[in-house]
Amino acid sequence: MTAPVRQDAPHVPVLIDEVLDALAIRPGETHVDGTYGAGGYSHGMAGRGARVYAIDRDPDAIAEGRERIARDGDAITLVQGPFSAMRDLLGEEGVGSVSGVTLDIGVSSMQLDRADRGFSFQADGPLDMRMSQEGMTAADFLNTAAEEEIADILYLYGEEPRSRRVARAIVAARPLSRTAELAQVIRRALGHKPHDKKDPATRAFQAIRIHLNGELDELERGLEAAEALLAPGGRLAVVTFHSLEDRIVKQFLRRRSGGDAGGSRHRPEAASTVRPTFAKPAKAVRPSEAELARNPRARSATLRSAVRLPIPAQPLPVEEKSA
What we know:
alpha/beta; Rossmann fold; DNA polymerase, domain 1; 13 helices; globular
């Protein structure tokens, strides 16, 4: 009988039961949660008997995680850094291989709900959007980048069909410093009406955040790091929240399990020459109607998982990496 996930957590993460089932944790195993966030997955994994190394590049997540771990007493070690560096980070802890790796890609609910982090336009805050709280802010980027570069980012990472119009409006409105300012500029540029079902600022905010934090490159490197760190029979579980992320995970697992990846404007088509390092991935899992009723933010979530084979990890050939 498995231990239930505690309900006093700041939030219950998306597809928590499905993720834990995919990990098939046996007591005493060592697992990695590459995206600690508010700790839901990590503490759920610890509740099933895993020794967890939880990684996060957000210093707020690390500080609050330490408080929760001290209170709950779970077998979790927090490590600050990007999950793409998990091999080095765990090597410093004396860990060379693990039985499971979990990644929950994108911005966390904790980050979205805090206006001062600047990830959301639901409440006004500074144009920040930095997951690590270091480096260039969203305001720095939008106030200095060329119009063409902004348009390209909005199109590539936000799939915004009118990216040039939005970029032109952003440049005309500079300097920008607040999330509410940026959202209003985008709405005016796209002719948003209050009764419209989806706020058009959503796509632009997503694109800027992904660019600023290098999220898609981080995901690619993180998948390769997980592949190298997983022991034979180890389980990989990845939850994504939009098509660009999901496509990267789907194509990586298809390549690494001996299939061909297919192509898109984000990922060129290429035949794999790499020996399979994962078994055929499990069928993708999406939230149930009951979960969607409890948590509308889960509506775009997809879980993909696979089991590691006893084949040494190999770097992707240059032609298989993204352009």
